[in-house]
Give the backbone structure.
Amino acid sequence: MVSTSTIREKMELYVQLVNKRDIDAILELYDDNATVEDPVGSKPLAGIEAISRFYREGLGQSEASAEQTGEVRTTISGEGAIPFQVKVTFEGRPCVITVIDVMQFNDAGKITSMKAYWSQDNLEVLA
């Protein structure tokens, strides 16, 4: 079983890599057969190719930045949750999206599932 300290480290690293827009390093955190549901309620993406497209077409085409806003919460069953904010331009206007990502990890410390909890209610348009 993956340790809670590994989960914490990987999740904090994930937000740092999103902030740097380092897509290759983000993809290294994922298992080849992982799934991503961002936001929750959208069709889940399955496999590293689909996940790569998601990050390259979204994060890779934006001027986004990210900042962790609270502590990582972990479980003894290989899962964690992390709160953070993403600053991005949405429809030509600067915005902040407040997100909680929930991730599952395998024994090797790779992400097997990522679900991003956010909606329009969590999107603030900045002046």
